[in-house]
Amino acid sequence: MKLRNVRLGICIEGFNPFRSFTIPYSCWSMILMVYNFSSRMCMKPKFIFLSTVIPGLNSPCQKIDVCLYLLIDEFKQLWSSRALTNDASRKHKFQMKATLMWIINDFLVYGMIFSWSTYEKLAYSYCMENKKCFHVNKWW
What is the spatial distance between Cα 63 and Cα 81, in angstroms, rounded to a whole number? Predict the structure, then answer.
């Protein structure tokens, strides 16, 4: 039986479904994208999968790792033990291994996932190692 690898990426983004800052409610989505296709195909809606929705009164902050834990655990299982999968176009089964290539997110989610301060001094991961940071006192 032929072995195939599936390369995946996760996009994480939060938004206010009511479009109002006066209502303290947020909704966070984790979207899986398949990168085995050409760049033209992998961005089409039929190849993008909504994996997880995290609703709540506030952003998940330190609790986002709980939501990611189940997904990462599933990735580990799909990589270590090959899953028997059906190829509908060729009408045969194959053994699939899936890997997470990257996580696409903004700086706020970066801070939540890695428990990093993204709004103070030493906000960048590069700065944390070298400690040669500075503050910009004026933005104009």
Answer: 28
Please give the span between the terminal C-alpha atoms of the chain, in angstroms, as a whole number: 63
Strand stretches in 16-125, DSSP E: 26-34, 48-56, 83-87, 92-104
Distance CA 71, CA 64 (A): 11
What global pTM score does this model have? 0.69
DSSP secondary structure letter of residue 82:
P
**CA nearest neighbour of 74 among 49, 93, 106:** 49
Answer whether 26's CB lies under 8 Å from 56's CB.
yes
**DSSP SS3 for 131:** coil
19-50 residue pLDDT tens: 777 777 888 888 999 888 888 888 888 889 99
